Amino acid sequence: MRALQGVSLLGAVLLTGVSAGLYYGFAVAVMPGLRRAADRTFVEGMQRINAAILNGWFLLVFVGSLVLILAAGALRLWGGGSTGTLPWIAAAAVLYLAVLVITMGFNVPLNDALDAGGLPGDPERLAELRERFEGAWIRWNVVRTVCNTAAFGCLAWALIRHGNGS
After folding, report:
1. Of 161, 159, 142, whose CA–CA distance to 20 is shortest?
2. Contact 80/110 with Cβ under 8 angstroms?
3. Which of 10, 37, 151, 50 is nearest to 2 (CA)?
4. CA of residue 144 relative to chain centroid, distance
5. Running DSSP on this structure, what letter comes out for residue 164?
6. Which value, in Å, is the radius of gyration of the alpha carbons in the chain?
7. Given 3-state DSSP classes, what are the helix, strand and coil percentages for the chain, each rounded to the nearest 5?
8. pLDDT tens-digit profile of 88-134?
9. How would DSSP label each residue in 86-122?
């Protein structure tokens, strides 16, 4: 049982780390790079990113993180042994749930609105579309990056404690 607990916890650490890295990459490279682009390039680039990210690999990380966090917690709770890692796993679950709520409640609706705006030929319309999207999306991405990174840290600490027999 202890091995299964460790494997589920390791999987949760890995997937949560990948998602934290993805959001971090957007925060420090993708969005600052696009910020320097013309309105048409920005809008078209984000629309293409929004379409490309909807794939099985992203879904595996996005949903799989929570599944493995919950599995690690359940196995620790009901599988016997010390529950010293349980508070860290629970904290990670709450933080990662915040990531999902932020993504589905803020970033995805902003993506959908940007996509619905199309690629207007009017430069003023493009600027308005970008203006409604860019600042809010960046702010919410930073919040989810912090939450996701904190969840990753909690899980990494739980994995260390698991290795120490806690």
Report:
1. 142
2. no
3. 10
4. 6
5. T
6. 19
7. 85, 0, 15
8. 999 999 999 999 999 999 999 999 999 999 999 999 999 999 999 99
9. HHHHHHHHHHHHHHHHHIIIIIHHHHHHHHHT---SS
